[in-house]
UniProtKB/TrEMBL annotation:
Descriptive protein name: nucleoside diphosphate phosphatase
UniProt entry tagged with the keyword Hydrolase: yes
GO molecular function, a single term: nucleoside diphosphate phosphatase activity
EC number: 3.6.1.6
Family matches, as PANTHER family: ADENOSINE/GUANOSINE DIPHOSPHATASE, ECTONUCLEOSIDE TRIPHOSPHATE DIPHOSPHOHYDROLASE 6
Keyword Transmembrane: no
GO cellular component, as recorded: Golgi apparatus
Pfam families, per the entry: GDA1_CD39
Natural source organism: Scophthalmus maximus
Entry similarity comment: Belongs to the GDA1/CD39 NTPase family.
Binding-site residues, ATP: 215-219
Residues of the active site: 185 (proton acceptor)
Keywords, sorted A to Z: ATP-binding, Hydrolase, Nucleotide-binding
Length: 439
């Protein structure tokens, strides 16, 4: 009778050992790697582990949270990166959520922005493992909407967000909430594109240039290969930064006021300031001669009209556009030889004229914008697709030539690369994480 009893004890001990080994292995798999974020950042001071990464079945992961506070809404990107030794990280997952309106809508009552920010922080809490909250940086970068606000109103909104970030369980510091300047926007978008196309994965990997046409500003960024470009460009057009153990030097500039909506206002004859009456009339040869309608820009409603039929619309509009752009843009000679991706309104207007499919993107030449402008301006009637399509196409074709691109130059138009949005948010997250390493 003793043998079955011994067998039972042996079975119980075996089960206990297996269970303990499982618990130990499970703990080891999900416990964070060692190495701690800089102690000057809140939430980091009392951590034993020194890294924003965690091991998952033998792989290391790191998270970053980026709030994109734009003029029309606030968007959150929660990025999950897979970290491999001595290699650039790869993007394992992205969680995205957007809310409206933008932060600038709360300029007169900053506390009211709290509920939206808290809603997005909740998205972050549910996307990042709780064990990594204190090692995951949370950053908000505001763009055009806050740039246009009076300084004190913008500061109050940013202070409100900063307080909410400090109360959150995530890693935040004094530099976690800021207004992004146009140059940083251009560099961050360039990092995003080259990360997604593989240009940042080694010191010798070829990179691509980036063209972005927003509403208020337009950016050009590329990595010059010709020493002459570095020597002849204005000093503030050349920027160097560290990324994934490599130094990158780029030519980059943001032209504030030359985004499509600001330029449209200038071409129509308006000025970037609210008219005294709150409404004003603009007459332009870039619109169909018999057209009359309203257009809202920067909270001002304009009455816009076409001029009476006279000289051909395209030629008259071209003259207006050339005047607006005269000596405002610098040619980047080497840019003509660099492969470029183009985004935002470059993409949208190419879709409008049927050069590319909205979902798929594709390629376009400078001359395609010019040809489309000639066609649209020449066939203007009262109810075209958009009353401003002629103006927008003329503007884009002239802008690209002023930037130094010949008519035959071809660009790649893309909204996403490998199903990831080509915005500045991913690049800005990398840039911020890299900056933490320097502390």
């Amino acid at each position: 009778m003793k043998r079955p009893k011994l067998a039972g004890v042996f079975l119980f001990v075996s089960c206990l050992l297996v269970y303990l080994m499982f618990v130990k292995r499970h703990y080891a798999v999900f416990s964070p790697d060692a190495a701690s974020p800089p102690s000057h950042h809140r939430h980091a001071a009392h951590q034993d582990a020194d890294d924003t990464s965690a091991s998952d079945a033998g792989r290391s992961f790191q998270y970053g949270i980026m709030f994109d506070a734009g003029s029309t809404g606030t968007r959150i990107h929660v990025f999950k990166f897979q970290i491999d030794d001595n290699e650039a990280p790869s993007l394992a997952h992205e969680t995205f959520r957007a809310i409206k309106p933008g932060l600038s809508a709360y300029a007169d009552d900053p506390e009211k922005c709290s509920s939206g920010i808290l809603e997005l922080l909740e998205v972050a809490r549910s996307s990042v493992p709780a064990s990594l909250w204190t090692r995951t940086p949370v950053v908000l970068k505001a763009t055009a909407g806050l740039r246009l606000l009076p300084g004190d109103k913008a500061s109050e909104l940013l202070d409100q967000v900063r307080a909410l970030f400090l109360q959150s369980p995530f890693l935040s510091g004094d530099d976690s909430v800021s207004i992004m300047d146009g140059t940083d926007e251009g560099i961050s978008a360039w990092i995003t594109v080259n990360f997604l196309t593989g240009g940042l994965h080694g010191a010798d990997s070829p990179t691509v240039g980036m063209l972005d046409l927003g509403g208020g500003s337009t950016q050009i960024t590329f990595s010059p290969q010709d020493e002459k470009t570095l020597q002849t460009s204005p000093i503030d057009y050349i920027r160097s930064f560290q990324m994934f153990n490599n130094t990158h030097t780029v030519y980059t500039h943001s032209y504030l006021g030359l985004g499509l909506m600001s330029a449209r206002l200038a071409v129509l004859g308006g000025v970037d300031a609210s008219p005294l009456g709150g409404s004003t009339e603009l007459v332009s040869p870039c619109l169909a001669p018999e057209y009359s309608g309203s257009w809202e820009h920067a909270d001002v409603v304009y009455t816009v009209k076409g001029q009476k039929a006279g000289e051909p619309v395209y030629e008259a509009c071209l003259t207006k556009v050339e005047k607006v752009l005269y000596r405002k843009v610098m040619k980047a000679s080497e840019a003509a030889d660099v492969e470029f991706y183009a985004f935002s309104y470059y993409y949208d207007r190419a879709v409008d004229v049927g050069v590319i499919e909205e979902k798929d993107g594709g390629y376009i030449r400078v001359s395609d914008y010019t040809d489309a402008a000639l066609r649209v301006c020449g066939g203007l009637s009262v109810s075209p697709q958009s009353p401003f399509l002629c103006l927008d196409l003329v503007y884009i074709s002239v802008l690209l030539q002023e930037l130094g691109f010949p008519p035959h130059k071809q660009f790649k138009l893309a909204r996403t690369i490998n199903q990831v949005e080509t915005s500045w948010a991913l690049g800005a997250t990398f840039h911020y994480i890299e900056s933490l390493k320097g502390h």
